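Please check this chain.
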Amino acid sequence: MQNYSGAVPAVQRAIAALDHLRTSETAPTLTELSQALGLNRSSVLAILNTLRSAGWVSRDDADRYALGPALLAYAPRVARANGPLDVFDQPAQMLVDALGETVALVRLAQQGAVYVAVKTGYYSVRAVIDRGQVTPLVQSAGGLAVLAALPEEGVAAVIAAERIDDHELRERLAMVRQCGCAWLEDALELGQVSLAAPVCDIDGRPVAAIELLGPSSRIVGDGLSQAGQMVIGAARQASQALGCATYKPYAAGPSDSWLAAHPGSLRGAELDAFLGGPWLARLACLREDGYPYSLPLWYEWRDGHIWLAPQPGARWPAYLQVNRRVSMAIDEPAPPFRRVLIEGEASSESARGLERRLAQRYLGPLAEGYLRKTAGHAGQAIRVAPARVTSWTGLVAHPLYEAPSARAERAG
């Protein structure tokens, strides 16, 4: 009796046929497929006929073979099992909205880096990645981002399996850990740059990477650094949604800067991207009796203003009629502890579709059920026009809000 404990030859041949159909630029004929696989025509025909009966392979009028439509039924389940798709959509859309570039979710597989989900950018000239595309590990920023976060035995196993130059790869991984994200130029296409950061699960283990791809002509200079920070922020957001309490994929990476350093303010697209994150805003205003009143709220950052949708029966909009001055704090609960404080004046406005956008942003697939229950109860919208926006990163106090004694001690 033949021992099939390792691999079944017939299944291996069928897999080889499917893999060749997946990677072939043009649909091959029986003869071409036979030559490519090194098998006789009758064996290949038997394999193809079996796969055709299951709908996994199709044949056109010119007797050329291609992958069949039945494989599409497996794609959603395979993708979901091989990547945190449930937490990819919101941070990926945030990046697309902020930068206009293509964003993908990348997983490591035996064949290389697999792009399991894609959100295409809105520029006319943009990176185009097919869902399910497989790329050599060293040509994928997402693949390098995950590999750099693996323990030594995982890195060594990949080096042995891929026969990659040990010294060169380790130098590249050291740069990834130092920067906090992977960066590649001309990897998938000439003139294209890609940046990626790992997504970690509840135990802090890297399970995927969020990768941004776009023309190097648009992602240059300071824009490259800002894009990298936004990619790290998106990966951190996805990781937190998976239950990762402390996002620190690279133990010696730059994520320790929040302990004492004050890297500076968030500006431009970086500020927009942060305020487009999954955070709540804490509104502070004054009650009629002069006491402060604060509460957490859903919010939308649009056109340089904060938009709020009060719940039916809420009393705080009436407080704003008496005193329009408010402050709002928006921050993330984990390193690097980015914070934004907005001070300004509130006014009642009409904002069509605001409640729906807020529900979709914060509830995702549960939004429709919420909107059905609240139909006809929407109140007025509140717009906060910022007079001052202060942002910083870390646990240290912003200089504007330090105690005089602390400022004097620091100056001395």
Q: What stands out?
A: Confidence is low (pLDDT under 50) at residues 252-256. Residues 26 and 112 are 22 Å apart (CA to CA). The domain at 9-72 is CATH 1.10.10.10 (Arc Repressor Mutant, subunit A).
